[in-house]
Amino acid sequence: MNGAGELRLASLLLKSGALGVPVSLFRLATACRVISVSARNMIPRGGLQPTREGFRVFIRSTEFRGELDASMESRLPHYERFSFAHELAHTLYYEWILGGPRPAKTAPVGRRLEDACDVAAARMLVPTEILEAKIARNAEISTDDIVQWADDFRVAPDTIVRRLSSVDTHKTNRAILLIKQSGAHSGEVKAAWYGSEMFSLTSALRPHQRLDDSDSIWNVGLRAGVGESWRVARFGRTIVCKKVRSEALRPGRFFIEATVD
Amino acid sequence: MKRIRTVLYGDQAVSLAELEVLHTPSLQRLYGLKQLGLTDRVFIDASHSRLHHVVGVLAQVDRLVSAIVKNLNRRPIDFRIGVKAVHKTISSREVAKDLEKRRQVVRFIGFLHDLTHAPFGHTVEDEIGVLESKHDEPKRQADAFYRLICQLSGWLAVEAGRGPELPEGVRVFLGGGHRNECPDADEVAKLIATLISAVPDEVAAASWRLSKSEIPVLFAQLDSAMSALLHLEVLHADKIDKKIVPDKEPYPFQVAIRKGLSSAGLSGILDEWKFDVRRDAYMLDIVGNTVCADLLDYARRDSHYCGLRLSYDPERASENFTLISWDASRYDFEKGQPHSKEKDCEDPFEGWCLRTAISLVSHKYRADVPGELMNLLNTRFHLYERAIFHPTKCASGAMLGTALQLIGWRKSTGLAFPTHLRFLGDDVFLHELREVLALLQFKLNTLSPSTPIDEQVIRTWPELGIVHGQLGLDLLNSRKGDAAADVLLTFRAASDILNRVISRRFARPVFRVLPSSRDPKLGAGAETMSDMFIVADKRFSAEREIEKIAGLPQGSVFIHCPRRQTAKKVANVLLVQRKKNEAERVCKLRHISQLDADLFGQHEAAVQAVEQMYRSMWRLVVYVNPEHLGKVADISQAAGKVLFRALDVHGQFENDPDAQWKNDPHLEEEISQRLNDADGFPDVSARKRIIEAISDELDGGSTPALSALVDRVARENLDGAQVRGAVADLMKGGEATQPADASDLSALVEAALTYFEVRPSPGRIKGLQARYERPFRAASPEVRTRVVEQLRQRIADTPAGLAQHRGTKMNEIVNTIDAICRDNGIAPDPNAGLDLLRRRKDEE
């Protein structure tokens, strides 16, 4: 998301009165010219129908059917909130010409548009203004904080970790990885946060990988046991795994919390 | 000057002298020679001719000449020319002045450099080698040049009103004279002298483009350019042999021009324009060396007309051209590669010569110059990879080669390739061959099959000695002693192949040897294979052998085996570094790290990488006519055996039944994919064959269960996905289970397809079937019905006209069906059908 998009979104959040913990998506939707939000047991997770009167948003839901209103917002599960925010993000890439919405000429297309909307959706659900305030109040961010903030913002922990990585926080020696385990010794980093920029992010973790100069902190983390430490010769640093936390997350997912000396 | 509007260069200035040469049958013939041969059967716009190319070369020659003149005038230096003991020096300013004057000669060199190409030259000369000489050998060039001089002087005489007096030997050249012997040089010399001295001024002014005084200059310039071109091959050859060194005795075209001008009292003009081998060697470099006008034009032209998005910066590539004094043998000696030449063979370029090089220093140090050369190197590589070595184009070349060999032009038969065919255009050449073959088949059909072809039979058809330049007669003479039926069979096979070529019904690949391929038994790799099958006759024998083993008719199998290419041409370009207060340093691009190891070390590695990439392009491919693809397994096996046997020269593995070269697994997979993707196999037996082939892998024999499966495949006409499912079951060790209720599975797939506005490809639909066939088979009919119903409901619930969908529709539908299956207690196999669905990706 570029600077202009950031500003526009910040302004929408403020003007609509949606800014808060959690963010009110329905208020934001009104500001985005959304005229209806419907839940259906449909194929895609979400969809947007531009009309001359405004946008119609559709969200895939197994619990709800029909039109949704603001009173139901608190009952929407996290992933449906994310789908809702994603569709709202799509509205930002339209411009109103001759009384109707048209895709903006400068908008990305295809996969890049979807990725941009994912980023914008996370930005909507976890506003930078509030997140920075929370970071400022916490000397050290722990996995407990992340789980708590995810509950507060009514989002998945992944979204919090991603947002932490995208905001400009102070330098720190702490790292937190959210791993989706796919086997006993392999997995995928769903989201990762590391206050410094020293180690690269390897999204795919390989099983039984030997620790060597090319190893990244993320690969080390997969085999973590509390209190264990590794030395990464390339940087002359030691990574110490502080905590492995798997409760309160979906099955097959766990956090690794580490410090880098 | 005249202007010619061209596609690539806009308005091009062409001198009147060039127009005189252009408007001759020899140059006009180049319209009929396609620059890329049969490549236009793949890239349909790539039908540009060699004439377009030579005109384009003129533009590039001009660019290079201007750059050289500019760079020579930038800083004065002295060049050495000659052998060590008697070398002389010449200043760069003098050379620049001389080059400016001789620009026309260099342009003529560019104009005439492709004159000797035969139709489908690459196939006729390089692949089957039926011509006794290469197009750039001096003898053949001199013949072509003399024909051009005859045509030019003939037409000038006709336009000056001297047509009626034209000697008969020259008159025939007004139309090309392809079937005629060249006239005596004295006769042409006389004609040239007459043009210069006997044509009245007012007639010359009214009829000719050029003034009367310009005519002798034109001939002198042509003499210089043509004499230069005789040295083109030897200048750039790795090994010097007598065939490529021009004779010391003058060739007929030189005699005609020189005598003509001398007898008109103009021998001074000859001296003025004389080609000095060592001083003017760089003129040949400008047209046809490593980075040269030829390459700069064809790299741009061929990629443009093929529609490939390849480009280089022509200004950058040429602006740093300059000249150096260069002793090739000294450089090679320093590199440990002694300059190779045949015994008693004189190298005309021995010692110091003026050669082109690319300067790394202009007004400042230009470290970016090698980068642009790399770009050119890459452009050439991609052009080769994508167009010149396109598999379909290679198939067409192999077919044409086999047709010519079947006609009789093989090294082993000794049948000479008729001279007149060398001067035809591509299409006329094919037409001529087909006409002759049709005539011969007609005649041979009148004989009883066992009649031997002998003098008596041939004498009954006197017309064969009159039409088509006696080609039919020559072909029959070469088959004396053979039975009429055999001769008819080979001519018919050749004719069929040519018909396929002109109809673009090309053969398809069934067997491929990649550069990495190696046989552990023979301890031989692709290199040995290439060395063996680069010989056309070996390929011909192997093709017929494969046909015999696989039970195919003659002319069904074609082998394509190109030379192992390298990037030598561009990588050999000379680079020069002339810094103030430092000695001049020269090296080839491939040794560029010598100039500055830190700066150019990676460039050298990149050049070597491109050279390796060229080698990786090589492949030997066996093609077969499409109607035999049903027998693909047999043909592939036969090919493997024949290729193996050819390399087993000592017969070590003669009795080894498993001795065969392995087919490229990628090609095998492609063929099997194509067969499975087809709407239906051509016949049930082909399908059986596949099942049988798989059965061999199961337990090495036919089991009752397998036999039942084969019967079922044939009876129920199962498609590829169903066959795979059935075989998978068998491999698990169980009996072939009953298939899922086909109506439920197709109902599921049909329901899924209603989600798409544009119907997915058949392959992806098969992917859907393959993915859910097994879970459906395991489920009860009620569950299957429920899954289909729920999917329909989900699709009905999806609003139409949504602007945005996350991911592709195929991903969405597969995820949805997976989820519905899981909800209903069916576990879809996470990997089933993925290869067909391709873009399918787990989202969560």
Kindly describe this structure.
The complex is a heterodimer of chains A (261) and B (844). In chain A, a hairpin with a 4-residue loop joins strand 10 and strand 11. Chain A has 261 residues and is an alpha+beta fold. In chain A, the strands form 3 sheets. Chain A has a 6-stranded antiparallel beta sheet with strand order 9-8-7-12-11-10. Chain B is α+β, with helices and mostly antiparallel strands and 844 residues long. In chain B, 54% of the residues lie in helices and 7% in strands. Chain B has 39 helices and 15 strands. Chain B has a 4-stranded mixed beta sheet. Chain B has a 3-stranded antiparallel beta sheet with strand order 9-15-12, sandwiched between helices. A two-stranded antiparallel ribbon of chain B has the order 1-2. In chain B, a hairpin with a 7-residue loop joins strand 13 and strand 14. In chain B, helix 11 packs across helix 14 and helix 35 crosses helix 36. Chain B is globular and about 110 Å long. The N and C termini of chain B lie far apart (72 Å). Classes of the chains: A alpha+beta (261), B alpha+beta (844). Chains A and B meet through strand 2, helix 3 and helix 4 of A and helix 37 and helix 38 of B.
Largest interface chains and counts: A-B, 21 and 17 residues
Average pLDDT of chain A: 76
Q: Compute the separation of the termini of chain B in Å.
A: 72 Å
Strand order of the largest sheet of chain A: 9-8-7-12-11-10
